[in-house]
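Issue 218. Parser rejects a valid record. Input:
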Amino acid sequence: MVELLMNDPETDGIVMIGEIGGNMEADAARWIKAHGTKPVVGFIAGKTAPKGRKMGHAGAIIGGADDTAEAKMRIMTECGITVVESPAVIGAAMAKLING
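Output the parser choked on:
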């Protein structure tokens, strides 16, 4: 999906919202680092979730060290994504990236 948005001429920036558990956000972040040409703002939900506790569905279970919200946020930041702590500031962060 990220590749489609990066290649879409009508897309100015990408908002990536993820959650605890799994590795799709880290995979997408690494792809963005290698191939990204547009600004990306990221948010990871579940930062306060207790480790090992099921949070709504099986995919939200933290299975390893890189599955935590903190780890995903770190990986995203290292890959050049602007990571925000609250979904309330996603729009402002994107506007700043697009408008300078």
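Fixed in the parser; the record now loads. The chain has a mean pLDDT of 87.
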